[in-house]
Amino acid sequence: MFRKLLFSLFMLSSYLLTNAQTQKQVQYLSGTDNENTVTWDFWCTGGRNSGKWSKIQVPSHWEQQGFGNYNYGRDYVTYGKNFRFADEKGLYRYKFNVPADWQNQTVQIVFEGSMTDTEVKINGKSAGAMHQGAFYRFKYDISDKLNFGKENLLEVTVSKMSADRSVNNAERLADYWIFGGIFRPVYLEATPKEHIEWTSIDAKADGSFAMNVHLQQAQKNTQVTADIIDAQGKTVATAKAVNSNGSDVVKLLTSVKKPALWTAETPNLYRVKVYLKNANGNLTYHTEDKFGFRTIEIRKSDGIYVNGQKVKMKGINRHVWWPETGRSVNPRLDLMDVKLIKGMNMNAVRCSHYPPDKAFLNYCDSLGLYVLDELAGWQQAYSTKAGEPLVKEMVIRDANHPSIIFWSNGNEGGHNFDLDDDYGKYDLSNRPVIHAHHKPGNAFNGIDGNHYEDFYSTQKILADSNIYMVTEFMHAQDDGAGAAGLSDMWDLHWNAKRGAGGFIWAFVDEGIVRTDRNGMIDVNGVNAPDGVLGPHREKEGSYNAIKEIYSPFKIRMETLPINFDGTIEVENRYNFLNLNTVSLKWDLINFKLPTDETAGFTVLESGTAKAPNIPAYGKGNFKLPLPKNWKQAQALALTATDIHGEELYRWVWKIAPNSQIVPLLYGAEQKNTGKASASEDDSTITLRGGDISVSLSKSTGRIVALGNSKSMPLSFNNGPVLVSGDAKLTAINQTTDGDKVIVNAKYEGNLNSVTWTMYPSGWLQMDYSYTLNGKFPFAGISFDYPENFILGTKWLGKGPYRVWKNRLQGVTFNTWESFKNNTQTGSFPYIFPEFKGYFSDVSWVQFNTVEGKFIVATPQENMYLRLFDFYGLTGIKPHPALPAGDISFLDAIPAIGSKLGLKITPHPERYGPAGEPAEFNGETKRTLWFYFGLQQQDEENKQFVMPTENILTD
User: Fold this and answer.
1) What does the pLDDT read at residue 759?
2) Is 862 helix (H, G, I), strand (E, B) or coil?
C-alpha cells in the first residue's frame, strides 16, 4: 500500500513537472495592475522628488507617485519648444530571483506598456535595442543574461519623451494627458526552446478555420495539432500538420459545421488548444486561445457587414483611464467600462488613440462589443521606421480577438500610408484597415469617417457613394452634445443605406487626481471634460438618454393615446436578434405625494407580456395584457430586458393627467376655513388666506413679499417676469368672489394678463396668458429666490436628470427628490444628477429651503422647471443663455450645441430639427398653484387641505 502511494505521488509530481515544462510559465516582477503593485527603487531626473533614489510602485505613472511634472499633450504645439519634461527620465532598479530549473528554458522579459523610450538591462547587460512607443507590448530574450537560482538585477531607464521625433508627434503631443513610467505589468515568460510564440486565427462565418502557428526555434518533424472546443467543452474539430522542414510558421486548416457565430449581440466564443509534439510523439508544448467565428466585409457603396448582415455602429471613444492612476488600470475597471458601454445599448467602442489593456479586449469578446483597435497617431503619424515594429506588436497581441473588426491606422491625419499593408502581415484574417480622419475627401477603404459633421452636412455625405461611419461625433464637452441631437443623427444613420453609425466623443472626462495640488481633479480646462461619464464613471444626463435613443427595442410613443388598449408600436433596431428574445414586464403605479416621507412610487399591479416576433430591422406591435381597471392607476411602466437579462430601457407613461393628479395635493374638505381677504396701501395689494399673506406690487403686478404667521417669511418674489417678450402693467384691481379674493392684472406687450386667486386655506392660484409669434429659445415666466437659501426639491415629473430641448430622452415619470449640489457638468464636484437645470413634464415641485417649504403645481401638461444659474457648455460666454430670474416655469427651453465645428458660438440647430428653437404662433395659457408655507394635512387622508370645489381644468 505504501509503495502504491509513493508511486502515485511520483507519477503526480512527474505529471505536474511535465505539464509545467510544456506550457508557458510566468513570473511577475511588477504587480499585476494598478491595485496590486510591487515596490521598486526609483530615481527621477526632473521635477518633483527628483535627483535622489527613492521608491515607486510598479505599474504606475511616476506623476501619480509624486515625481516629475504634469503635462497635457497640447501644452506643446511645436516640437522642441518649452519642453519642461524633455529630459524627464525615470531610472528603475529591481532585484529578483529566477528558478534554477528555468536554465534550459527560453526566458523573456515582457513589458505590457512603458512611457515611452525604454532601455532595459539585466545584470548590467543590455537586453536589446531601446523600445520606442508607449502603448505596446514588447519583450526581450534574456536567457543568456540571467543567473539561474540566484539574484538578478533589472535596470530600466524610461524617457517620458522619445528620442524619435515621430513618436513624440504621434503620441506625446496629443490632445490627452501625457504621463511617464512603466504603467502596465512587467513579467518573465519561461518556455521550452521550441515553443509557440504567437498565433493568428481566421475563423469565418461558414465554419472554415485557419491558423498560423508561429514557432520559436522550430525543429523538423514537429507535430502541430489544434483542437477546437465549444462553449460546452466539446471538441468539435481538429487540425493537424507536421513541420517537416522546420519552418517558423505552420498553417492549420479545418472546419466546424454550423458554428455558433460571434456578433456583438451573440458573443459566442470557442477555444483552440494547440499542441507541439516532437518526432517521437511526446508533448513538448501547448497553449490555448479564445476566438469567434465571424466574417467582416466592407461592401462598397453599401455598408459594413458581419456574417452577411448589415451592422450599424452605436459606439463611443474610450481612453484607458482612472483618476487616481491615469492609464494604469486593472481588469475590474475594464469590465466595469464594458458593462457601462453596453449599458447605454451601445454595440461598439473605438480604442482612442492607442491599443487598450488586453483585459478590456477580452471583455469585449465575451460580452459583445465591436472594436476599432487603433495605432497611435494623433494628427501626426509615426515614421515608417518607428511605426512598423509598433504595428507588429499591436497586431500579434490582438489578432485573435473576434471583437476587433477594424484596425485603425492613426487619427485625424496621423496616418502613415506606408503602414496600411503591414496589418495584414500579422493578421491572418486580414481585417479591413481604416483611417479615423477629420477632413472631407479622405475616405479610405470605402469608408468615410469624417469627424464632427452636423446633421445637414451628414445628409450630404450619406447621399454620396461612400459608407459613412463617423469615428468621432457628438462631442460631449461639459454637458454639450453627447446625447443632445443624437436622436436626429441616429435616425439619419439608421435609415440611410450607407449610414454605418458612429462613435461619440467620448466615454469619460479625463480628470486626473493631482498629487501636486492636494488631490484636486484636473480636466485641463476645456481640453478633457469630454465624457458622458465623469472621471469616476459618474453618470451624466447623456448616459440614460443614449440608453433610450439606442435601445434596440424602439418605442416612440410619448403619451398614451385616448383609445389606448394596451397595443404599442415597436421597431426592431437589433442588427441580428429577433425582438422575441426580449422579456417584457409591466407595472401599474401611483406616485408618492409631497407629504410622503420618501419619493418614488407604489406598484399596484404587475405582469409580463410576450414580445413580438419581429426580425432585425423590422417593425410591428405588441399588446400588454392589462387588467380591466388599469385606468385607475396613475401611470404605466414597461421594462424591456435583453437575452442576457440586462435592462434595455424602462418607459413610464402617465395614465392620469395633471388635472387629476394635482387636486390630490389639496385633500379632503376642511370645515370652517373662513374667508380670504385683501388690503391695499399706496404701493401694494396684500391677499390673505389662512396663515399666508401675499403682497403684489401695484406698479408691476409681481409678488413683492410673502408672509406666514406660523413661520418666517419666504424670499420668493419678483414674478411673474416674462422670459421672452416684454410686459407693461396697464391696470390692476381686486375683487371678492364668495370666500375667495381675486386680483386681475392687465398688461400691454407680450404678457396679456395675470389673475391671482387667494383661497381661505392659503392656496394661491395664478392664471396667466402671453402671446408670442416666432422662434424663441425659451418661453414662460420666472421668479426670484436666493439660491443660497435652497436645500433641495421634491417633484413629480420626468427625472432624475435635467434636460435640453434636443435631449429630452433618458428621463421618466416619478416622484423624485434631490438635494442641492453645485455641479457644473465637466468640473468638480462630480455629483449627479445636477441639481440646477431644466426639468421636464413637471406636475408639482416642493422647495425645501432654510426659510421653510413651499409648493408650486400646474394642472396643465408639458411644463418645464428651471432651477437657478448653470451652464451646459463653457466658452467665451456660457452656453446656452439663461432666462431671467432664479426659478422659471416654462413652456419652452433651449437646445444645447457642441464645442467642435462651431467656431465661437455653438449652434444646436445644426444638429437636427430638435435643435431648432421652439416656435410660437399666438396665445399660451397656463395656471400655477402656490402654497407658501408648511402645508396643513388631513390626518385621515395624509393629503393637503383644500376646498372640495374642483377649480382645476385641463
Assistant:
1) 94
2) coil
Given a cut of 90, whether residue 935 has pLDDT beyond it is: no
Domains belonging to the chain, first-starting first, are 23-191 (2.60.120.260), 195-291 (2.60.40.10), 315-549 (3.20.20.80), 553-641 (2.60.40), 719-726+762-944 (no CATH)
User: CA 128, CA 110: separation in Å to the nearest integer?
Assistant: 12
Q: How far apart are CA 677 and CA 918, in angstroms?
A: 40
| Cα-based distances in Å from 823 to 520, 632, 801, 828 | 15, 39, 12, 7
> What confidence tens digit (pLDDT) does each residue in 627-667 have?
999 999 999 999 999 999 999 999 999 999 999 999 888 65
Q: Collapsing DSSP states into helix, strand and coil, what is residue 460?
A: helix
pLDDT recorded at residue 76: 59
| Model confidence at 398: pLDDT above 60 | yes
Higher-confidence residue of 49 and 439: namely 49
* Side-chain-side CA neighbours of residue 647 (13 Å): 10
- Residues 61-75: tens digit of each pLDDT: 999 999 999 999 877
Q: Percent of the chain beyond pLDDT 90?
A: 83
Please answer whether residues 152 and 128 qualify as being in contact, where contact means their C-beta atoms are separated by less than 8 angstroms. no
In tens, the pLDDT along 707-735 reads 988 878 899 999 999 999 999 999 999 99
Q: What is the DSSP string of 637-691?
A: EEEEE-TTS-EEEEEEEESS-HHHHGGGGT-S--S-----EEEE-SSEEEEEETT
DSSP 337: H
**Is residue 668 very low, low, confident or very high in pLDDT (cuts 50, 70, 90)?**
very low
The answer to whether the Cα torsion of 491, 494, 496, 501 is positive or negative is: positive
Round to whole Å and give the CA distance between 558 and 822: 31
For 698-750, list the strands marked E by DSSP: 703-708, 717-722, 727-737, 740-749
DSSP letter at 318 equals: E
Quick count: other Cβ atoms within 10 Å of Cβ 847?
23
pLDDT at 526: 86
For residue 317, the SS3 value is strand
Question: Under a CB-based contact definition with an 8 Å cutoff, are residues 485 and 288 in contact?
Answer: no
Residue 206 half-sphere exposure, CB side, CA atoms within 13 Å? 3
Per-residue pLDDT for 669 more than 50? no
**What beta strand segments (E) does 307-453 contain?**
309-311, 313-318, 348-351, 370-378, 404-411, 433-436, 447-448
Q: Which residue has the cell 394635482?
A: 662
* pLDDT tens digits, 574-587: 999 999 999 999 99
**Selection from 922, 945, 927 nearest residue 935 by Cα:** 945
Which tens digit of pLDDT belongs to each residue from 294-326? 999 999 999 999 999 999 999 999 999 999 999
User: Which region holds residue 537: left if phi is over 0, alpha if psi is between -120 and 50, else beta?
Assistant: left
Q: What is the 3-state secondary structure (H, E, C) of 747-799?
A: EEECEEEEEEEECCCCCEEEEEEEEEEEEECCEEEEEECCHHHEEEEEEEEEE
Q: Is 566 left (phi over 0), alpha (psi -120 to 50) or beta?
A: left
> Is the four-CA dihedral 63, 69, 70, 72 of positive or negative sign?
negative
Give the span between the Cα atoms of 693 and 712, in whole angstroms: 12
Cα–Cα distance measured from residue 113 to residue 162, given in angstroms and rounded to the nearest whole number: 14
Strands 918-931 and 852-857: antiparallel
- The vertex-279 CA angle with 278 and 280, nearest 5°, equals 90
Dihedral, 142, 147, 151, 152 alpha carbons, nearest 10: -30
| pLDDT at residue 446 in the model | 86
459 strand-pairing partners: none
Q: Where are the alpha helices (DSSP H) in 150-218?
A: 165-167
Tell me the pTM.
0.93
CA-to-CA distance for 886 and 868, rounded, in angstroms? 4
